[in-house]
Design brief:
With 370 residues, the protein is α/β, with parallel strands linked by helices. The chain folds into 2 domains: 65 residues, no CATH class; 242 residues, TIM Barrel. Helix content is 29%, strand content 16%. The chain has a 9-stranded mixed beta sheet. Strands 10-11-12 form a 3-stranded antiparallel beta sheet, with no helix packed on it. Helix 7 links the parallel strand 3 and strand 4. It starts with a helix and ends in a 27-residue tail after the last strand. It binds pyridoxal-5'-phosphate and iron/sulfur cluster (SF4). Pyridoxal-5'-phosphate (PLP) binds next to strand 2.
Length: 370
């Protein structure tokens, strides 16, 4: 058994253990555990400094999860875009490939709360079917290997999957989405990165939500990955009482850059059952984006997206920098709130009238232009 597997074995998961460690009512923890999987690695538990802090709110179960009047089980309607159980194919040229049902620690805000930790959801047969689906769909050029957490698989099983995907001629890039560098950084070993770097171009997207998650251990893990030539991106979820503060978020983004991770997405929390106590308003997200752009390195600014309920996909939300646009001029507001005018190209005389809204999608089956 590898070191990380031993560490994982020691994770807190029994309601009695959790209740005792965090001073909770054991019956309450039992009730929550029946609805949603609970597990916290000893490493991550060690980052929790006090009741209700940012790390606590992400991982320690809360009775608020059992309120039944809000949220839906599958807000993104991923099941509707799932041709085989391990694939979510929503965009023209890329898909998600869900290869593991388990995670090192279970985040209380997880969008896939309904699925994670349930071994019945990902059968080895489903992996075969997923690879077959990707092979048959030649329009795919980008596969996002996700879960659960793909790095919960052994090196051997993970390599078998990556190798099979890499062997498909139309697949140009492979991405892995993982929270392991944040919650179980010991899993990132020399052996693992030596395997991963054989399958370039391979990208890894990690998931950090608070600056205090960037520790010497997680920095070591991220540096190992970066040294293997793996471009690193980060996805953050905007969470109440965790990172819904412009200064906390700015610090997180800056610290990520210092360990060679490029902030990629900041997600508005999805409308998921059992997570209402962790959601913020959208205005809060816009306020945070305003506090990033211009005030710190452009590299530290992620895209702020709402993954639209009903399967609409990720939709970017921007502060209102474009104040008005006419044939003559564009009025822009800069990061500090000052207005500037940009003159438009002089319109040619006697143009044919253009449609008010330019078509952004072609309907003849051709892929839409970027
Ligand atoms: C997020 C996501 C992707 C990847 O989207 P990018 O914007 O390319 O990072 C692909 N498929 C699904 C279903 C997704 O939710
Ligand atoms: S690591 Fe990702 S998939 Fe797993 S519980 Fe956390 S948010 Fe959900």
């Amino acid at each position: 058994m590898d070191d990380w597997q031993r560490l994982l074995r020691g994770a807190l998961r029994k309601p009695e253990e959790i209740a005792q460690k965090f001073g909770l009512d054991v019956e309450e923890v039992r009730r929550i555990a029946k609805a949603f999987k609970i597990q916290i690695t000893p490493y991550y538990a060690g980052l929790i400094k006090e009741r209700g802090d940012a790390m606590w709110r992400q991982m320690v179960p809360d009775a608020a999860e059992l309120k039944e009047d809000t949220g839906v089980a599958d807000p993104l309607e991923e099941d509707a875009d799932s041709p085989v159980p391990s694939i979510v194919h929503r965009y023209p040229d890329r898909c998600l490939f869900l290869v593991s049902h388990s995670c090192a620690s279970y985040c209380r805000f997880c969008t896939r709360k309904r699925k994670v930790g349930d071994p019945s959801k990902i059968h080895p047969r489903y992996i075969e079917d997923g690879i077959e689906y990707i092979r048959r769909h030649t329009e795919l050029r980008d596969v996002v290997i996700s879960g659960g957490d793909p790095l919960m698989l052994s090196d051997r099983r993970l390599e078998a999957i990556i190798k099979a995907v890499r062997g498909i001629p139309h697949i140009e890039i492979i991405r892995i989405g993982t929270r392991v560098p944040c919650v179980l950084p010991q899993r990132i070993t020399e052996k693992l990165v030596a395997m991963l770097k054989k399958y370039h171009p391979l990208y890894v997207n990690v998931h950090f939500n608070h600056p205090d998650e960037i520790t010497p251990e997680s920095s070591r893990a991220l540096n190992l990955l970066a040294d293997a030539g793996i471009p690193l991106g980060n996805q953050t979820v905007l969470l109440k009482g965790v990172n819904d503060d412009p200064l906390v978020m700015r610090r997180l983004m800056q610290k990520l850059l210092a360990v060679r991770v490029r902030p990629y997405y900041l997600y508005q929390a999805d409308y998921v059952s059992g997570t209402e106590h962790l959601r913020t308003t959208v205005e809060k997200g816009i306020e945070i984006m305003e506090a990033l752009r211009g005030w710190t390195s452009g590299l530290a600014v992620p895209y702020y997206c709402i993954d639209a309920p009903g399967g609409g996909g990720k939709i970017p939300v921007l502060p209102k920098y474009l104040q008005s646009i006419t044939d003559e001029q564009v009025v822009l507001r800069n990061y500090a709130g000052e207005l500037f005018v940009y003159p438009q190209v002089k319109p040619k005389p006697k143009r044919r009238p253009r449609p008010a809204v330019a078509p952004c999608y072609s309907f003849d089956g051709a892929p839409p232009m970027p």
